Amino acid sequence: MLIGHAILKCSCYAYHFAYTFETMTKYLSLLLLLLLLNSCYKQTKPKHTTLNTIAFGSCNKEYLDQSYWPVIANQNPDLWIWLGDNIYADTADMEVMADKYQQQKTNPYYQRFLQQVPVTGVWDDHDYGVNDGDRTFSQKDQAKDQFLSFLNIPNTHTVNKHPGIYRTEVFGLQPQQVKIFHLDTRYFQDPLIKTPKGSKKNYVAQPDGQILGSAQWQWLTHELNQSTANINIIASSIQVIAEDHRYEMWSNFPNQRKKLLDLIVSSGVNNPIILSGDRHLSEISKINWQDKELIDITASGLTHSFSGTEEYNRHRIDQLITTESFSVLEIDWVNKLVLIKQIDMQGTVINKHPLKIIE
């Protein structure tokens, strides 16, 4: 009788343990799902949210040290903007590209950053799939899918209704509204033409060449002309204003550069700010275009930087930065001021430049 009672009691304990274990497993699975959803949610900033601090950067080799993300997080950004070369895929093999994106996305430092800061951005050539990539890349549509997945952009987004990754985002309400124009400088770009060895520039200037393509130009013209945002940010992977160096830039397609600068001015958008990456250096370029001051803030690179110490840029203001760095826009809506900060990976502010918010 005692033995039977003991067996019955043990059976009850076993059942209770199995039931408890199963219940705990369900709760843990639910908790992990909620944490995952929360991480994805952070990448989509509520559109009514006012942006006070925007951080941005480019040129990130996913296989190199990623411990710099807490330095960026210490700036308390409301948004992070990738400016291209977000990974170094350099491949037409989409499985390889997917693995590289996954390596970046699952990096513990970057994961913690994603839990704190929403993320958006554009691509450049290395994450597009090929160095100096252009419209002839055979896997550009598949690469687009990989890019949108990396940023957790849903299939229902309007960017999926047209070729390329160009799109706009609007944050905040008037009179504290920011509109971001994400340009695609790869999908439609004509191939670069290399100059003979020993030339001053790497590429032949192509006055009739295209960067954006007709559909993207039509979209950009419409979006700029109808924008009522208080600050308008144009995100271009390659430099717009700088024109003296030998590498990739809008100046390799001089009529496209002129068309863009003309359009920014003629649209009359409030407080336009150009952001660029690509160069493995950081600097601020300024130009007076048709009596309007335009700024191009280059933020590059995150994991590696320019090997030299000097490079001529007739439009540069402040210091050339040739160490790993990122940049920040601090928006003071009350005092109508934007403070540009360019910061190294030790958290030291190297360049600081104020811009007035003109109403």
What's the number of helices? 8
CATH architecture of the largest domain, by name, is: 4-Layer Sandwich
Query: What's the overall average pLDDT, rounded?
Result: 91
Which spans have pLDDT < 50 for at least 5 consecutive residues? 1-21, 23-42
Class by alpha and beta content? alpha/beta
Overall form: globular
CATH superfamily membership of the largest domain: Alkaline phosphatase D (PhoD)
Tally of domains: 2
- Count the strands? 13
CATH class of the largest domain: Alpha Beta
Give, in spatial order, the strands making up the sheet with the most strands: 4-5-6-7-9-8-10
Here the CATH topology of the largest domain equals Purple Acid Phosphatase, chain A, domain 2
Biggest beta sheet summary: 7 strands, mixed
Radius of gyration: 24 Å
Fraction of helical residues: 25-40%
The proportion of strand residues reads: 15-25%
Sketch the topology as an H/E string, one letter per element: HEHEHHEHHEEHEHEEEEEEE
Termini separation: 90 Å
Oligomeric state as shown: single chain
